[in-house]
Hints:
Largest sheet: 8 strands, antiparallel, barrel
Radius of gyration: 32 Å
Number of strands: 10
Shape: elongated
Helix content: 10-25%
Amino acid sequence: MTDESVKHRVKDPNLHLNGGQSCSYPQYIQNTTWLDSTKGRVVYGDQTMTGWAFYAFSQLISDWECFLKDDHFIVSRSTTTIKVFGAEVHAYLCQKPSLIGENAIYYYTMTDEEENAGKERVHVTAADISGVCTVCNPASSPTDEEFRVLVKEGSSDMPALSVSPVVGCNPCVLQCDIPGSPPVPTTTSHSPIKDVVEIPHKKPTIKAADTDGDGQLKHKTNAGLVVGIVIAILALLSVGIGAVVWYFRFRK
């Protein structure tokens, strides 16, 4: 196996499609059942995908539709919405795939970790998604070790990698065809779920050391220090008064 096969990207005539309009998964992945290294059995159809499951805001998401794609990314959108404090939001999954043989693919999920989805790299938003770079430009990119593998169900062996997978250049952030180029400002921006709806703040954790035997909060004061200072002042006053009395008494 050559390094070229590892980095292979399949060109598709239907690139940069409008979200959800006639988007089909690439031929090399569609109409196949895969075993995902993190999700188990995942089935890709022509325009739908099932099995890539996670929980967001305590709601299960496992059904997806092809939404956008280009030479680098596949963006899927959840077919059902997630209800968050009255708002209806979608989840978006951005995959950056590479072929490693006829029966296997490795990919990276190219979004930021979502705190309310078990830190899955999914983009949850109620905002309109106008292009792949609205989803696939994480502020914190995945590490090289975060790759996932898809193997066709029924395949006997997982092909060996001639080189270790790497995340590689993200064209949503850099001009990848120009080595060493500075970041390219994107015209789109994330709309995190925390900006769409109000997230309640967590109450501070009460430590065991801050409670008494009955579970009541201890009142921490400086009472001991104050009492000590008062006693010292009274002692000084007593000594001073005694000295004055002694002086006038024995002067006579």
